[in-house]
Structures are given as structure tokens and as C-alpha cells.
Amino acid sequence: MIRLAALFGLASLIAAVSLSPRIAAAEDEPAYGPELQGFDYAYPVMRFTFSSQGQEFQMAYLDVKPPNPNGRTVVLLHG
Which of 2, 7, 27, 61 has its CA 20 to 30 A from that of 18? Predict the structure, then answer.
């Protein structure tokens, strides 16, 4: 029983020491919200609000105008 407790204590110590650099590195990285608040987009973020199945939803999108329009449209959806 004592060996098991010692082994568990050693494993906990190793895990804590090995995770310490990762925790420190994470503090240096920017924090993002659930909708990527805090991320610097190259274009303004627009929002489309709609209702579906009795619930209100919101979708964020970027409307990027081309420098030389050619009459064609590209839509990229992800999520």
C-alpha cells in the first residue's frame, strides 16, 4: 500500500513538472473567446442574426470586396 502511494506521488510530481513549461507558454499566448473574440482579422467582422426552430442564432462573416470585381462570387463556409 505504501509503495502504491509513493508511486502515485511520484507520478503526480512528474506530471506537474512536465506540464509546467506548457502552462507558462499558454499564458504568453493570446486568449480567444468562444467566437474568436480577441483575434485580429484583416477585415471587419460582420454579423448575421437569424432565427431557426424557435431559437435566435448569430453567424459571423467577412465580406471581402475584390480590388477588381469580375462578376463572380465565392462563398466559403466552415464551422
Answer: 2
Angle at alpha carbon of residue 13, lines to 7 and 15, rounded to 5°: 105
Mean per-residue pLDDT over the chain, rounded: 80
What is the average pLDDT across 4-26? 59
**CB–CB of 57/48 below 8 Å?**
no
Q: Classify residue 68: in a domain, yes or no.
A: no
Beta bridge partners of 47: 60
In this structure, the dihedral spanned by the alpha carbons of residues 22, 27, 30 and 33, taken in order and rounded to 10 degrees, is 90
Res. 63 pLDDT band, cuts 50 70 90 = very high
Q: Is residue 76 part of a domain?
A: no
Number of domains in the chain: 1
- Backbone φ and ψ for 17, nearest 5 degrees, come out as -70, -40
